[in-house]
Amino acid sequence: MNIFALETSCDETSASVVSGLNIKSVVVSSQIKIHAKFFGVVPELASRAHIENINVVISQTLLKAGISFDDFSKKIDAIAFTVGPGLAGALLVGTIAAKSVASIYKKPLIPVNHLEGHLYSSFIEKKSIKPPFLSIIISGGHTELIIVEDFGKYITLGSTRDDAVGEAFDKAAKMLDLSYPGGPIIDRRAERGNYQAIKFSRPYLKDSWDFSFSGIKTALLNYLKINPVKNEKHLNDICASFRQTVAETLVFKAFKAAKEFRLKQIALGGGVSANSLIRKMFVEFGRINKMKIFLPVVSYCTDNAAMVGYAAYLKQKKCGLNYSLIQLKSNPSLSLENW
Ligand code: KG4
Ligand code: ZN
Question: Is any atom of ligand 1 closer than 6 Å to the C-beta of 169?
Answer without folding.
Answer: yes
